[in-house]
What does this fold into?
Amino acid sequence: MTIETKILCSNRAVRHLEPLNARHTFGPAAVVFLGPPGAGKGTQARHVANEYRFPHISTGDVFRTHVAKKTALGLQSAASMRRGMLVPDEVVCGMLMEHIRDLGSTGCLILDGFPRSLAQAKWLDHFLHTRTGESHEFPREAPVAIQINIGRDQLLRRLAGRRSCPSCGRLYNLHFQPPRNPEICDYQGAELAMRPDDSESVVCERLMVHDQNTLPVTEYYRRKGRLLEIEGNDTVNAVRAAIAVGLESVFAMQQHKRHRGLGI
Ligand code: AP5
It folds into this structure.
């Protein structure tokens, strides 16, 4: 099966996705979100995970938690993150493998910020293959990638305006999703924080690292016919709607294929 679609956003209302039990037994083994820093991967991945009730793993969030707790993994990753560089592949893959095993579920994973290098993409294919192979009852398909495309000016604005609540983790944007009172969380009253790697110089480095290491990952999924491209330069709801349409078509194709295989 080949999935290669360019989906443009429309401003129609977000279609509600019925979380179907069936989606927990077929479909891709993972949906991976790709795109430059600030493209909206986290915003959209969280929504898809909630909608379908699939586990969401943000490698950036996992590392930030370890850095804050000063764990061994946090100490290993802090310097790379501060400079906007990638944490070494073996560290990320080792962390992810443990995290996924701890989840104890064979359902579709929503991966946000992984893979970011060709080595990680190949590792993921192999890991998911062996993982789903363990569940003979419901073998899953290869991962599908959602690439969120967005222009440089827009993402620089998004990153400069991003703030989060240190208490509840809610995400705001001073330009696009502002809190009621500037710099204060609407729910906790806490002072909002800026991510240290959202400073201008580190953002430049992150963009360069993305182009060098992660654009080849997009090509990897494109060549394999497993890429959905989404126009990200639109409102959160419009991007969400475009992703919903793309994912529904993936599930519909895979359900069709499964029924044919079962002779239904
Ligand atoms: P990570 O946390 O993954 O950062 P990133 O990939 O640079 O992505 P961001 O979180 O900055 O952006 P996003 O695309 O998720 O956008 P968001 O939804 O937040 O990684 C951080 C670091 O960890 C890396 O630099 C690296 O060191 C390390 N790391 C992580 N994974 C790794 C891996 N696999 N390998 C090696 N190292 C790894 O949105 C951004 C802002 O825009 C928000 O304010 C949001 O509210 C707003 N916004 C979102 N969508 C819209 C919209 N449509 N319209 C208007 N505003 C919007």
Notes: Residues 3-159+198-259 form a domain with the Rossmann fold fold (CATH 3.40.50.300).
